[in-house]
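re: that chain from earlier
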Amino acid sequence: MPADFLYALLPDHLLLALLLVLMLLEMLRVSGRVVGPLVTITLGVACALLLRQYATGYTVDLVPDEIRVDHFTVLAKLVILGCGLLWSMLLRGRLTFKSAFLSCSSLLGASVVMDSAGFVSLFLGIEMLSLPAFALMVHRAGTTAASEGAFKYLLLSSVASALLLFGIALAYGVAGSLTIEGFAAALDAGSTQATTAGILIARGFFLKAAVFPFHGWAPDAYASAHVNVTGFLASIVKGTVILALVRVLSTVPLDPVIASVIGVLAVLSIYFGNVTAIGQRGFRRLLAYSSIAHAGYMLFAFVDRTGARADDLLWYVAIYAATVIVAAAAFATLCPGDSDDIRSLDGTFETHPVASLAFGLAMLSLAGIPPLPGFFAKLFIFKSVIASGYLAAAVIAFVGSFIGVTYYLSLFFRIFATEAVADSAHSTPSRTQ
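^ sequence. v structure.
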């Protein structure tokens, strides 16, 4: 058992050790240049361990009905920590001791969520994920807008936590335990109290994932943070919340009425996010509305009845999160400083061809253009939804996805807009004469 405790949770132990080392190095006033390589190496080793666990089919119940490492746990942690590794690598030398500490604290919370077989550890992991994100938003921001955005996120996240706790309390009342399996059995049996608990828990997760109409905090919070932090929130934090909901509902066939409600919310999120994003001029706010639309696609997978729900969402979260991280990092390179206007992208291919190409491919992938990964992520979900008998809903959602193509293609073509750069260059002298 002690050996299992060490090996099964070794990625978590590495993250915890990294946090202690970061605090110690900052107290000793060690150069900040060691932060990036240290974080990258630690996350790389953690991902390598997870790959080994996956290859050997390693599973273990560490704490009965509370902490479990299984197939889903290993893959979900690999997705989240792999995205964290990509995020740290693309930041290069911009990580500080504090930003690394906060981001790795969130990653540790995400790992705890994926290890959960009970609601106690699940709730603690969600809070460990969210609380450092508030501080990360205002770290080195130095603006009132960042404080306001973080406060709005904190306030509504607290409401979401309260809804989760109410739901967990009801689940305990009907199941007689705090295990996820006990709650899933009660929900499958059609208990009214279990259904009510499920609705409260789902609403808490929807609020944290910014699903329409529980999205109110996201635009201001995302727009007020640095673009790389926005990428972290829209990818790793959102992806973890969605996978946490998968942890709760991975094997439960939903009641047709509840499945219909979820389908409606998913379609509304897709249309609202895509339609609202079209009129945005700031990239971070556009990314916020884009993430609301993608939350709709991910939510759509929960109406699946074929048993592919967990696999589809693992693929979607991995592809979506990695793409958003690349897009945010590329935008930070193309438009350094506090520039957030998408017009700043005009003609950037001439000066930054590699970053521009990465940004353009990320936009096409988010739009779902084949043969890029984003196309297959959507294909897996739509295929499962159609196989579950929701053809009409899938067609409506598919039409909504075409709306998103408009602003993604607009951003793609901007990086090649050499005429706009030329016009700007010629208009500058005329204003000064």
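The beta strands are 60-63, 67-69.
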